[in-house]
Amino acid sequence: MGATPSLPESVNVEEITNNTGLSKKQISSLWTRFFELDRDGRGDTKGYKGYIDGDDLGRVPKFDENPIAPRLIKVILDDFGSDGKLTFPQFVYFMSTFGQCVRGGHEHHGHHHSHSKRRSSLQATTVNSTSQLATKSTLENVRYSPDDTPKTRKVKFMFRMYDIDRDGRLSKEDVQETLKMMVGKISDDEASIIAEKVIAEFIDDQPNSKVSLETFVNTLKTLDFNDKMGLKLLK
To answer: Three-state DSSP class for 114?
Structure first.
């Protein structure tokens, strides 16, 4: 019962390393965490199903303390999983982006060495949004891309968290719904006033406009996403 589970031979470590830049030791640590999260219906037996679902994520203390945990879990499963489940490779891909403690201070060092001469897609969004993003549809802009850096995926994840209706733009209504999840008891009028102020932080003097990804990025580009967007699920 107390033995640490070893990494199964069925796990393709080389493929995961190529996709994430994580070492075998890091992948083994993630397997231990995955095994601990994967429980039966009562939350007792570990390594029971071979995948993680919403109930498993709901038992994580960091999520349990978050008022928007249901929304957070839904976006994680929708964006990184399939059919409401996270397999181990999907879990590793998610954690390699958001579980900052896994990388020991390095973001996919091996994986991104081959991309070192490229500008990050976040830089492309910020510096050259007119020429590069104008050719894409709104929904294409917010989808994850294999060329996204961890920072870019964090920004997109945050954007998609607020984009309740999934139309690729943040509206006042999106912010209102998020506020209701966060605060709980708040009137529609109060939520509307706050939502208008939030949108105004992104778009000046355009109260009825929607916030695009490029506008969202330009507003948030000074934040340290490594600290603010790390989900410490390994602790």
So the answer is: coil
